[in-house]
Every structure is written in structure tokens, then in C-alpha cells.
Amino acid sequence: DVAARIIDGKAVSQKLRTELADEVAAFKQQTGVIPHLAVVLVGDDPASAVYVRSKSKGCEQAGMAGSQMTLPADTSQAQLLELVARLNADPQVHGILVQLPLPRQIDETVILDAIDPLKDVDGFHASNVGLLAQGRPRFVPCTPLGCQKLLLDAGIPTSGAHAVVIGRSEIVGKPMASLLVQKGAGGDATVTICHSRTKDLAAVVRTADIVVAAIGRPKFVTADMIKPGATVIDVGINRIETGLVGDVDYGPVSEIAGAITPVPGGVGPMTIAMLLANTLLAAKLQTQ
Ligand code: GUN
């Protein structure tokens, strides 16, 4: 067989970030407002620190402001709520992102629901989740939005396609399924969500025209699960002894699939591009 076409998320994200920088410049020109994302990190997890740094750096590259607040790992829920309240009240701050996961003593849902829904660039607040579920999205979570943009950019038809999402997380799996089933471009798919309790998961995935792998298990999706010619989107970032791998067994799967995203250089760079787009949207929603 022929090797799959590689969907280059790095290239697509660079193109989107260049377009976004132009939109930011026009917005600043028209309004005098500089879109500003505040990123909050609690604790000193090294991987989270890297992500947070690249998020605020990405803002600056797009002509927006990115500020970073780091709180100690023993921060209480009340202290974090106080910081969120301060950012909610600050008219200079348009977007608020609290990096997950949070330390044990803090209830993530309490924090996410405390963020002003108009500043919720992650799209995790209950009201933004609800709006997406109703098919009238405001802020859409960055990772699934990036996956949808990759499918659109690659010209992969979703209308009438069977899309199988593996993983039912609030951050990726559930919002991804919402986007794919929604009416219109990048949607209109027949969507199945598989998870750890799914019976004969391999047989279900084998019927997919589009597979989105978001389970968080290294090389979980193997070549025998893939219908020849299917599109495979790999959301996984797993650190194993040999380095970084996705949720897809890339080598063998790329010989069966029609198109596939690599790890790294696939979905990852798109996530940041979508966060930057959401930050500009936040500034627009807060500027009359
Ligand atoms: N941790 C892993 N992914 C994400 C994300 O998309 N947003 C936030 N806030 N934290 C994360």
C-alpha cells in the first residue's frame, strides 16, 4: 500500500498564526485595545511550565499581551479564587487560562466555573460547554477546535462520514464529538464516542472514516483497528522511555491510513493557535 499523507499541523498553525497577527493588528488599529491573555500556573510541574510559557509567548508573537502568574503548589482554593476574581474584574485582561491539572486541594470545577464566561478562552466554563452542546458555540476548547481546523484545511470531508472519537474527556473527547456532529462545515458527521467500557472497541474503530485518538495511552490505536484510507488524528502526547509518542502506533498505522497527524507536529501546535484565536475573540466580545 501507499503511505498515508502527513497532515502537517506545524505548517497549518503557522499559517493561522500569521493570519491572526494581521487580524490582531487591525483590531488594535480600530479600537486601541491590546488583547491580553492571563495564564495562571499553580505549582511547579515542569511540563505545565513549558506549556504555560509557550502560551504567553505565542500571544506576544501575535501582537497580543501575555502575562503569566505562578502560584505555589500549596495555594488554597480560596487563594486561587481570589486571583480569578481579580482577573475577572481587570478590564485590561480579556482572557483567563488556569493551567490544568490543579493540585489536589483545589476543586477544578469550582475554579473553572468562577472564570468570567466571556474571558473563558479554554471553553471549560459550564455556560460555554452548554452553548457548544446547543450548536451555538462561543469559546470552543482549543484542542478539539484545532483538530476540526486540521480536517478542514486538509480537505477531509466530515459530512456523512463516520467519525469515531476515542476518549470521553471534557477537554477533548466530548467537545470533539459535539463539533463533528454539529451542522455545517467541519461537522455533519455520524459520531461514535468510544471509551474504556466500550465493547469490542477495535471493531467499532474499524468502521471509522475519521478516527480521533484522545485516550492518553501510548500507541493504543494499532494498524489492525484502521480501515484502509481512513483519516487518523492523534491528540496524544505521552512521555515514554524512548521519547514522545502519541496515542497512535504511528509507523504501522501510517501504512494503512489515508492521512495522519504526526506527534509532535500535528495537533499540538494547533492547540496554541486556537488559544490565540480565542484570546482575540475574547477581546472582541469585551470591546463595544
Ligand atoms: N492542560 C492540558 N491541556 C490543557 C488545556 O487545554 N487547557 C488548560 N487550561 N490546561 C490544560
TrEMBL record:
- In which residues is NADP(+) bound? G167, R168, S169, I237
Name the InterPro entries on file: Aminoacid_DH-like_N_sf, NAD(P)-bd_dom_sf, THF_DH/CycHdrlase, THF_DH/CycHdrlase_cat_dom, THF_DH/CycHdrlase_CS, THF_DH/CycHdrlase_NAD-bd_dom
Q: Which PROSITE patterns match?
A: THF_DHG_CYH_1, THF_DHG_CYH_2
- The catalytic activity of this protein is classed by the Enzyme Commission as 1.5.1.5, 3.5.4.9
**What are this entry's molecular-function GO terms?**
methenyltetrahydrofolate cyclohydrolase activity; methylenetetrahydrofolate dehydrogenase (NADP+) activity
Query: What sequence ranges are listed for the domain Tetrahydrofolate dehydrogenase/cyclohydrolase catalytic?
Result: 7-122
Entry keyword Hydrolase = yes
**Cellular component terms (Gene Ontology):** cytosol
Question: Superkingdom, according to UniProt?
Answer: Bacteria
- Keyword Oxidoreductase found: yes
The pathway entry for this protein reads as: One-carbon metabolism; tetrahydrofolate interconversion
Tetrahydrofolate dehydrogenase/cyclohydrolase NAD(P)-binding domain residues are 141-286
Key words of the record: Amino-acid biosynthesis, Histidine biosynthesis, Hydrolase, Methionine biosynthesis, Multifunctional enzyme, NADP, One-carbon metabolism, Oxidoreductase, Purine biosynthesis
Question: What's a single GO BP term from this record?
Answer: tetrahydrofolate interconversion
Catalytic reaction equation(s): (6R)-5,10-methenyltetrahydrofolate + H2O = (6R)-10-formyltetrahydrofolate + H(+); (6R)-5,10-methylene-5,6,7,8-tetrahydrofolate + NADP(+) = (6R)-5,10-methenyltetrahydrofolate + NADPH
Subunit structure comment from the entry: Homodimer.
Q: Which HAMAP family match?
A: THF_DHG_CYH (MF_01576)
Q: Which family does it belong to?
A: Belongs to the tetrahydrofolate dehydrogenase/cyclohydrolase family.
Q: Describe its function.
A: Catalyzes the oxidation of 5,10-methylenetetrahydrofolate to 5,10-methenyltetrahydrofolate and then the hydrolysis of 5,10-methenyltetrahydrofolate to 10-formyltetrahydrofolate.
Name the UniProt record assigns to this protein: Bifunctional protein FolD
Gene (UniProt): folD
